[in-house]
Amino acid sequence: MIGLDTSVLVRLLLGQPADQAAAARRLLEEAIAAGEPVIASDLVVAEAYYALRHHYGVPDDVARAQLAALLDSGLLETDPPKLSRATRAPPPPGLVDRLIQSRYSQLGAVTRTFDKALARTEHCLLVR
What we know:
By secondary structure, the protein is mainly alpha-helical. The protein has one domain (2-126): Rossmann fold. Helices cover 58% and strands 12% of the residues. The protein is built from seven helices and five strands. The protein has helices at 6-14, 18-34, 42-55, 60-72, 84-88, 95-106, 116-119, and strands spanning 2-3, 38-41, 77-79, 111-113, 124-126. The strands form two sheets. Strands 1-2-3 form a three-stranded parallel β-sheet. A two-stranded parallel ribbon has the order 4-5. Helix 1 crosses helix 2 and helix 3 (42-55) packs antiparallel against helix 4. The termini are far apart. The mean pLDDT is 94.
C-alpha cells in the first residue's frame, strides 16, 4: 500500500511543477497497474486543501471540486473512506470541520462542539 503525502496530492491536482506532476502521475499509474492500493488520509486532504487555497490562490469552491473529483476518481482510497462527501459540502462549516465530523461519524461517535455551524451537520451536537 502506498500512502500519499500532501506534496504528491497537490502535484496531481495542479500539474505543477511539471516534472514532479509527471512523477506523481507515473507513481499512481504504476501502482494501479501493479494492483497496489494508493491511499490519502484526511490529514493529507486537509493540508492539500489549505495548500491549494493559501499557497496557490485556488478559490474555495474550485479547491473543493478538484479534491472531490480526485477522491471520486477511483484512483485512490481515502482514510477514512468516503471523504469526498466532506469536500463537496458547501461551507459553513469549513472543510476541516467536515473532515473531523466525517472521521468521528464513521467511528460511530457524535461530534460535540461549540461551533454552531458544525453542530447543524449530521451526528453533531452543540455543547451547552
